[in-house]
Amino acid sequence: MIKGIDLSEHNGNVDFTKVKASGIEFVILRIGWIGNKNNHTIDKKFEEYYAAAKAVGLKIGFYVYSYVENEMAMLSAINWIRKQISGKTREYPIFLDVEDKQLDTLNKGQLTVLCKQFCNSFTNSGVYANLNWFKNKLYTGELTDYKIWLAQWASDYTKDFKVDMWQYTSKGKVDGIKGNVDLNYCLNCKDNVNIEEITGEANGGDFQVKTWQNGSTNETVYSDLACTNKIGTIYPREYAECYGIINGKYLVVYYITNSSGQVTGRKAGFVKYNGGVK
């Protein structure tokens, strides 16, 4: 089994030369945390750790800590994550950490949907949680197409479901790191592609998918470039994915909600307003 660590700003200053010399082969870096009010926050050590780990030849993966409770917020988070990792390379998966007690308000179906939304947005992606969460708060059987990173601090890990990465202690000791550090074994971390990370290149152009945000009034969505056939409405302050600009019109994909505010699907169309595309 391949041995690695995961790091966040809480680990402080790290001597990655010593880490590599100690036999560690990979590191999973926290990008930051994602929230419900577009208040996503980058880990203070992310850029520093990434550059230093790359410099010594460590293989790298990423994770984000999630407070996200709905699909619209997850869409915003996914676009934010894309920006943080733009131009960076990784050899290991990108994971969604879903252990926060705030997510206890969600049922198993809701939390599983959010995990799948995240995982389907990146190549070689997966979910991180402890054994209790995988067994009681997630439909783990619906996540088998993705990587499972299990936190089970024991002498062995469960065989009740497939595990791709095992975090076996939070009290590890590694030369170059002061204090305790999480230790992991990679059991199966090879690329397990779901869909391509969406870029202009993957879609036949040089336009990278960006975030579109509506203004303070309703925005009409049309099926045609001439904007004559109305197919829907995007409400004030809503977010969408922008896939390109064609003849001055913006091609967006947005979520459809019912009268209770529940997401029931997605729809694509053209809008006139630029939405402060980022």
Q: Which features would summarize this protein structure in a list?
A:
eight-stranded mixed beta barrel; alpha/beta; 5 helices; 278 residues; four-stranded antiparallel sheet
Model description:
The chain has 278 residues and is an alpha/beta fold. 18% of the residues lie in helices and 33% in strands. The chain has helices at residues 16-21, 46-55, 71-85, 108-119, 131-136; strands at 2-7, 26-34, 41-42, 59-66, 94-97, 125-130, 147-151, 165-172, 181-186, 210-213, 219-222, 230-234, 239-246, 249-257, 263-271. The strands form 3 sheets. It has an 8-stranded mixed barrel. The protein has a 4-stranded antiparallel β-sheet with strand order 10-13-14-15, with helices on one face. The protein is globular, with a radius of gyration of 20 Å.
Q: Radius of gyration over alpha carbons?
A: 20 Å
Beta strand %? 25-35%
> Strand order of the main beta sheet, please?
1-2-4-5-6-7-8-9
Mean pLDDT: 89
Distance between the termini: 41 Å
Question: Tally of extended strands?
Answer: 15
| Secondary-structure-derived class | alpha/beta
Poorly predicted parts: 192-206
State the share of residues found in helices, binned by percent: 10-25%
